[in-house]
Write a structure and sequence with these properties.
Largest interface: A-B, 49 and 62 residues
Helix content of chain B: over 70%
CATH topology of the largest domain in chain B: Rna Polymerase Sigma Factor, Chain: A
Helix content of chain A: over 70%
CATH class of the largest domain in chain B: Mainly Alpha
Oligomer: heterodimer
Shape of chain B: globular
Radius of gyration of chain A: 58 Å
Strand content of chain B: under 5%
Mean pLDDT of chain A: 80
Order of helices and strands of chain A: HHHHHHHHHHHH
Strand content of chain A: under 5%
CATH superfamily of the largest domain in chain B: RNA polymerase sigma factor, region 2, helix turn helix motif
Distance between the termini of chain B: 45 Å
Structural class of chain A: mainly alpha
Number of strands of chain A: 0
Chain lengths: 278, 194
C-alpha cells in the first residue's frame, strides 16, 4: 500500500468502517512506515480532542440578538426603503418605528442606505445658489422694455394698468391690515384729549368742566320747561276738542288738575296755563 | 404686525410703480428676484443657456400678469415665486414629454458659485465641486423623481405645496421624494461623493 492510499483510508480505519480485506494491508503499511504511523496518531489525537470538547457558552446577549433578527425580519427591505423619508420626517407610528430600527440594526445594506440618505439630505442642504450670468439682469430689463413698448401701443392697456394700480391702492387702504394702526392713532388722540381736560381742571379749578356742567344743567332745565309747556298745550287741545264735540266747555278745575297731573315733576309751575278766550 | 404691514405696504407701492410703468421699480424686482428664479430654472433645466431663456420667459410673463397680484393673499415675494415655479414646472413637463434636447452642460461647464471674497479658496473649490456633483447626480434621476426632490430638498416646499404645484396626490409626492432620495443616494455613492 502506498502512503497516499493509506492517508485516504485513515478516517474509515479509525471509525472501524474499513473492509476486512483492506485492514491487513493497512496494518502492514502502518507497521512499516514511520511517517504514516505518526500521522495516524495525530489524527486519532485530534479526533479524540474534538470529541472531548463539550458545549461552549453562547454570548449572553444571543437571545436578544436573535429576537432582533426576528423583529428585523418582520420588515422587508422594500418596506424599509419606503419608510426612510417618513423616518427622517419623524412621522412613523410607534410600531413602524420599532420595526424600522430593528431592521436597520440587523440589515447592513439597509443601514447603509439609511446613512446614505441622511448624507444626501444634508448634502442637498449645502447646495449653493449659482451666480446669475454676466449681464443677465440688463438683458431681462431690455426684454421687458421692448415688451412694454409693444404693449403700451394699445391705449386700453395703458388705461387698464392705471386702473389696476389705482384699485390696488384703494383696496389696500381699505384693508383691515391697516386698522390696528388707525386704532392706535385714535387711542392716542383720546388719551391726549383726556390729559388736556385733566390738566385744565387741575390748573383753573375746573373752570372748563364747571362751565360744561353749568351748560348741561341749563339744557336740562330748558328741557323740563319744554315738557311742562307741552303738557299744557295738550290740555288746551283736548279742551278745544271737547268744546267742538259737546258744544260747552268742561269744568276748569278738572282741566287744571289734569294739566298738573301731566307735569308732576314741576311743582312750581312758572306760568299759569293760558286759556283760550271763551 | 407692524413689520408685516410695512412689508405689504412696500410690496403694494412697488407693484403700483411697476404698473405705472416706472422702470426703476422693475429694476428693483429684477435685481431682487432674478437670482432665485434663475437658480430654480437652472436646477430644472441643468443648462445655463436654457435657464436664462426660461428666466426671461418668466419675467415677461410676470410683466404681463403683475396686475393679478393681490396683497391680501400674501406678500409679493411668495406670489412671484409661485408664478415662477408654475411656469418653470410647465416648461419642465413639456421638455420631459419631448426629450429631444438634452442640453446637459452640467459636467462640461464651469460652475460659478457666488463666491465670498473672504473664503478660503480651497473650501470654495470644494464647495463648487460638491454642488456641481450634486447637480450632475440630480440630472441622472428620472424627471418626476427629480422634480419632487428639487422642490422638497432644494426649494424647501412642503408636501402639500408640491402636490398642488405638480397636481398629483400628496401620497405620490411622498413616495416620489423617498424614491428620489434613495436613487440619489445610490448615484452619489457610485460617484463616490458619499
Amino acid at each position: 500500500m502506498e502512503c497516499r492510499t493509506f492517508e485516504h483510508l485513515i478516517s474509515e480505519y479509525l471509525e472501524g468502517a474499513l473492509p476486512g480485506d483492506q485492514v491487513s494491508a493497512f496494518v502492514v503499511h502502518l507497521s512499516s512506515c514511520e511517517r504514516c504511523r505518526a500521522l495516524l496518531e495525530d489524527v486519532r489525537a485530534a479526533l479524540e480532542l474534538c470529541r472531548s470538547v463539550g458545549e461552549v457558552e453562547p454570548p449572553s446577549d444571543l437571545p436578544e440578538r436573535l429576537q432582533l433578527v426576528l423583529q428585523g425580519a418582520a420588515m422587508s427591505c422594500a418596506a424599509f426603503g419606503e419608510l426612510i423619508s417618513n423616518y427622517f420626517d419623524g412621522v412613523l407610528t410607534a410600531t413602524e418605528y420599532h420595526l424600522f430600527e430593528a431592521h436597520a440594526r440587523v440589515c447592513s445594506r439597509c443601514q447603509q442606505m439609511l446613512e446614505d440618505v441622511a448624507a444626501v439630505t444634508q448634502l442637498l442642504q449645502r447646495v449653493e445658489p449659482v451666480a446669475v450670468p454676466e449681464g443677465m439682469n440688463e438683458r431681462l430689463l431690455r426684454a421687458m422694455r421692448s415688451a412694454h413698448r409693444e404693449l403700451s401701443r394699445a391705449w386700453w392697456w395703458r388705461w387698464r394698468r392705471r386702473w389696476v394700480a389705482w384699485r390696488l391702492g384703494w383696496n389696500f387702504a381699505r384693508q383691515p391690515l391697516l386698522l390696528p394702526r388707525w386704532a392706535m392713532a385714535v387711542i392716542l388722540c383720546l388719551a391726549m384729549l383726556g390729559v388736556t381736560l385733566v390738566n385744565f381742571s387741575g390748573d383753573r379749578k375746573g373752570s372748563l368742566i364747571a362751565r360744561l356742567s353749568d351748560r348741561a344743567a341749563g339744557v336740562q332745565a330748558e328741557g323740563e320747561r319744554m315738557i311742562e309747556r307741552l303738557g299744557q298745550w295738550r290740555a288746551q287741545v283736548s279742551d278745544i276738542l271737547q268744546l267742538l264735540r259737546t258744544g260747552h266747555r268742561p269744568a276748569t278745575s278738572d282741566r287744571e288738575r289734569s294739566g298738573s297731573v301731566s307735569n308732576p315733576e314741576s311743582p312750581h309751575s312758572p306760568r299759569p296755563a293760558k286759556r283760550p278766550a271763551p | 404686525m407692524g413689520a408685516r404691514a410695512a412689508l405689504v405696504n412696500h410690496d403694494v407701492q412697488l407693484v403700483r410703480r411697476c404698473l405705472a410703468g416706472e422702470e426703476a421699480a422693475w429694476e428693483e424686482i429684477v435685481r431682487h428676484y432674478s437670482r432665485r428664479i434663475y437658480n430654480l430654472a437652472y436646477r430644472f433645466t441643468g443648462n445655463r443657456a436654457a435657464a436664462e431663456d426660461l428666466t426671461q420667459d418668466v419675467f415677461l410673463r410676470l410683466y404681463r400678469t403683475l396686475e393679478q397680484y393681490d396683497p391680501r393673499e400674501g406678500d409679493l415675494s411668495s406670489w412671484l415665486m409661485r408664478v415662477a415655479r408654475n411656469l418653470i414646472i410647465d416648461d419642465y413637463r413639456r421638455r420631459a414629454r419631448t426629450p429631444t434636447e438634452s442640453g446637459e452642460d452640467l459636467a462640461e461647464h464651469e460652475y460659478y458659485l457666488c463666491a465670498d471674497e473672504r473664503e478660503d479658496p480651497h473650501a470654495l473649490v470644494e464647495r463648487r465641486e460638491l454642488s456641481e456633483q450634486i447637480h450632475v447626480a440630480l440630472a441622472k434621476l428620472s424627471p418626476e423623481l427629480r422634480a419632487c426632490v428639487i422642490l422638497r430638498d432644494l426649494e424647501g416646499l412642503s408636501y402639500h405645496e408640491i402636490a398642488e404645484l405638480l397636481q398629483i396626490p400628496e401620497g405620490t409626492v411622498k413616495s416620489r421624494i423617498n424614491r428620489g432620495r434613495l436613487e440619489l443616494a445610490r448615484v452619489l455613492r457610485r460617484m463616490r461623493v458619499i
